[in-house]
User: Which sequence fits this backbone?
């Protein structure tokens, strides 16, 4: 991006007049950021977005969009506090933005058009520079809308792991293994009920059930109507279907730190490694207050878990989806002990409820926020061209209006009180911030810091955050079909 200095000064004087609308402010910030990016020299990292053929298994090749012709995209290992320059080239046929998920970056490079990040035109390039301050397991992915075009957005292979090496590593492991869970070959299908039994605490708020029932009544749904969703034909871990990738080769006694990312456009996932336990050390890259040991990991779309497994059950195992269809569809990887023989074994784990409070600090009592923001999520059957339309506080996000839902005061502490009047578990995401889960379905919690959290159906959740990022920040459900059909809101911090 080249900057005309006169334009820059002109905008500067406009700013001095005060009261710029958000879009103009974002443009102003973009120019300021561009000033700081070195125009010459080699970038630290280059990402090229282009169509690619990915071989999930012998004879099973898919066509999708990918970074650098591979899935997952190249592993980016950055260092906390160390500035990087990244070149992004768009060799696809539609505008693209790269979102740096879990980092607190300025709106003009965060990678959401809704916040004012400029899209990279087909054939275009952009150089950005930033200093990652949030250490641990993050990611980068496309933030392109998809709608009915399932070649686009997060249905594609535009996902990559990003690890920000902390200034001080807590250690306690012998090596790291990164696993990216993904499903491909999306197709429009009937909307099926989402499994939610895995979430705890249980319980339904009857007032939310009533709101949902009212929305169904208002839609005048006929009994034989089925609304649409998206299903997938194949799945993989690190780009290979179960049985077709390199096994994870381990030795007895080894402590492996797994960094796991759910890169699905739509699916929540539960995974297990028979005979082994996971000591969870970080959620979404943030160290947990309590390192609980669990037999199953659950990840909503875009969630990450870092967990240490002590390899103390020699054999050849399938580490994979606990759902048989998803695992047999490819979401699994073989773990092979040195010297072990025989076919990989799978054993179904006992039922296990996923509860963020296991990782909380039992002593933590979150302080009262300065302000509370209420949000109610409602599903309007069939209102989105065959898909369900989603609304937050009665508003479905409109890309043409881009109207912020809330205005925040910089430096203030906010509590987002979310009420889910639907029967889906939504992985909600707030850009450019880390929030703390402070209440789940009426139960107080503290010390669990995340950027995505699953809000169970007919339940409420509260998350607290400090409004320390100037400009626009996007809030949305991370399921592509939900965000494309209205499940987004902008927060404007002056
Ligand atoms: Cu959703």
Assistant:
């Amino acid at each position: 991006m080249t900057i005309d200095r006169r334009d820059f000064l002109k905008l500067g004087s406009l700013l001095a007049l005060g009261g710029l609308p958000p879009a103009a402010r974002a443009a102003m910030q973009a120019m300021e950021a561009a000033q700081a990016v070195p125009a010459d020299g080699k970038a630290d990292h280059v990402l090229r977005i282009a169509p690619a053929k990915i071989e999930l298994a012998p004879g099973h090749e898919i066509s999708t969009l990918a970074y650098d012709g591979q899935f997952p995209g190249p592993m980016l290992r950055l260092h906390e506090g160390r500035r990087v320059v990244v070149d992004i080239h768009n060799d696809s046929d539609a505008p693209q933005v790269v979102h740096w998920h879990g980092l607190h970056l300025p709106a003009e490079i965060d990678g959401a058009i809704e916040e004012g990040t400029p899209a990279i035109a087909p054939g275009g390039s952009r150089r950005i520079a930033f200093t990652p301050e949030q250490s641990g397991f993050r990611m980068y992915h496309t933030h392109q809308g998809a709608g009915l075009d399932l070649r686009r957005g997060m249905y594609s292979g535009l996902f990559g792991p990003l690890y920000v090496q902390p200034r001080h590593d807590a250690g306690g492991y012998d090596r790291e293994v990164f696993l990216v869970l993904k499903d491909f070959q999306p197709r429009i299908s009937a909307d099926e009920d989402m499994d939610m039994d895995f979430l705890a605490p249980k319980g339904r708020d009857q007032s939310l059930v009533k709101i949902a029932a009212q929305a169904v009544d208002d839609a005048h749904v006929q009994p034989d109507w089925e609304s649409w969703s998206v299903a997938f034909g194949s799945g993989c871990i690190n780009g290979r279907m179960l049985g077709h990738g390199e096994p994870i080769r381990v030795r007895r006694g080894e402590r492996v730190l797994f960094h796991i990312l759910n890169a699905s456009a739509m699916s929540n996932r539960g995974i297990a490694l028979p005979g082994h336990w996971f000591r969870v050390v970080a959620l979404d890259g943030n160290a947990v207050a309590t390192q609980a040991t669990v037999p199953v990991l659950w990840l909503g779309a875009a969630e990450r878990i870092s967990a240490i497994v002590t390899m103390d059950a020699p054999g050849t195992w399938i580490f994979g989806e606990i759902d048989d269809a998803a695992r047999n569809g490819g979401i699994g990887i073989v773990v092979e002990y040195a010297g072990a023989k025989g076919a990989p074994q799978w054993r179904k784990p006992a039922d296990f409820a996923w509860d963020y409070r296991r990782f909380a600090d039992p002593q933590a009592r979150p302080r009262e926020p300065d302000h509370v923001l209420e949000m109610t999520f409602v599903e309007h059957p069939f209102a989105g061209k065959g898909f369900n339309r989603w609304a937050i506080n009665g508003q479905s996000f409109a890309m043409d209006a881009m109207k912020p839902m809330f205005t925040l005061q910089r430096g203030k502490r906010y509590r987002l009180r979310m009420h889910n009047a639907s029967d889906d578990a939504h992985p909600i995401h707030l850009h450019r911030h880390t929030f703390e889960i402070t209440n789940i379905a009426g139960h107080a919690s503290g010390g669990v810091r995340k950027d995505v959290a699953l809000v169970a159906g007919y339940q409420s959740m509260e998350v607290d955050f400090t409004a320390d990022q100037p400009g626009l920040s996007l809030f949305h459900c991370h399921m592509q079909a939900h965000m494309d059909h209205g499940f987004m809101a902008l927060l404007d911090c002056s």
Q: What stands out?
A: The longest helix spans residues 22-35. Confidence is low (pLDDT under 50) at residues 1-18. The helical segments are 5-17, 22-35, 107-110, 206-218, 324-328, 480-483.
